[in-house]
Amino acid sequence: MLSPHASVTVLEGEETIGYHSSGRSATMLHYALGNPLVRALTLASRPFFDSPPDSFTDVPLGRRTPVLIHARADELPALDELDAAIAPFATLDRVGEAEMLALCPVLRVGDGGAVAGLADRNGIRLDPHALLQGYARTVRHNGGSIVTSARATGIERSGSAWTVTSERGERFSAPVLVNAAGSWADKVAAMAGVAPLGLAPRRRTIITFDAPQGSDAANWPFAKTVGEELYFAPESGRLFASPMDEVPSDPCDAQPDDYEVALAAYRVEERTTMRVERIVHKWAGLRTFTPDRMPAAGFAPDSDGFFWLAGQGGFGLQTSPMMAAASASLIVDTPWPLAGVSREELSPARFLRQSAQVDPAFGD
């Protein structure tokens, strides 16, 4: 979004883009995730995925996949609450046991199982590789560059420019430094002498396993409990599932933990009629949150030219078109692209104001 307006250089610490969270995401576009701000960003981003710009990609950015949010009897109040929260952004169908089984034949229903659900017939399973490559293609097409294996070892401000020094001793300078370092964003800020936001990386685990013998799972939905317990969906001829864990972590190359792997399998067997006989693959990624679990996009109030773009949690891909457009607007002063979302809602200054208002007598 910046590259038509400015000279853009992307510094990637790894050997390839998307090595960490972006390449490990379940990549569904759905509205059961986040809060009103996240849902507004998702709704505004959807037209981009449905009709990407010319030359952005040669393949679809995703495929239509239904979303089924299911609830047991004791979870019906939570389902009602979620239904009301989503209603301003999308129309979901209230479904009963028969309709849930028609969508997902392996769902456990009835006594001890799901008794009601919400069905979104218009969910999108995004293709993270196609999306990342489309963004990279756009940067290069507009004269920008992507430098891999360029992990920063030093960041300094001199005059009107920021200079980043990489592990290889290369130096890159620009008047604006965009801190889009994901789980490492607070560490990048510290390196630059900028106050951190208090970002919290959280590890999430995913397993893949074989679908029941003889079943045709390809058209099953992305199925999610109304609470943060389990989601599962078709994945390249198999199924993937996550216990929706949020385990605190330092920024790192996240690896799956045996407990969360076992928990994923247990919850699949608890919520469905399936048995996880063999785990084919397992992986983990970090989802990074701000203190209020809403993204931060804006210039740091304590340092000129330092722009925060962080805290996308688990919704970074599905909101990326509008988060990018909003960020570009703030940096190069183009018209604000988001109706119903203000600059102030995204501003990182809100965290510094909150810190200043805390009475030291109450500690952390």
- Helix/strand class: alpha+beta
- By DSSP (H or I, 4+ residues per run), the number of helices equals 9
Question: What is the annotated CATH architecture of the domain at 66-122 and 200-289?
Answer: 2-Layer Sandwich
Residues in helix, %:
25-40%
- Could you give the distance between the termini? 38 Å
The main β sheet shows up as: 9 strands, mixed
Q: Please report the total strand number as a whole number.
A: 20
**Elements, N to C (H/E):** EEHEEHEHEEHEEEEEHEEEEEHEEEHHH
Q: CATH class of the domain at 66-122 and 200-289, please?
A: Alpha Beta
What general form does the structure show?
Answer: globular
Radius of gyration: 21 Å
Global mean pLDDT = 93
Unreliable stretches (pLDDT < 50, length at least 5) are 356-364
Q: What amount of the residues lies in strands?
A: 25-35%
**CATH fold-level topology of the domain at 66-122 and 200-289:** D-Amino Acid Oxidase, Chain A, domain 2
Fourth CATH level, the homologous superfamily of the domain at 66-122 and 200-289:
D-Amino Acid Oxidase, subunit A, domain 2
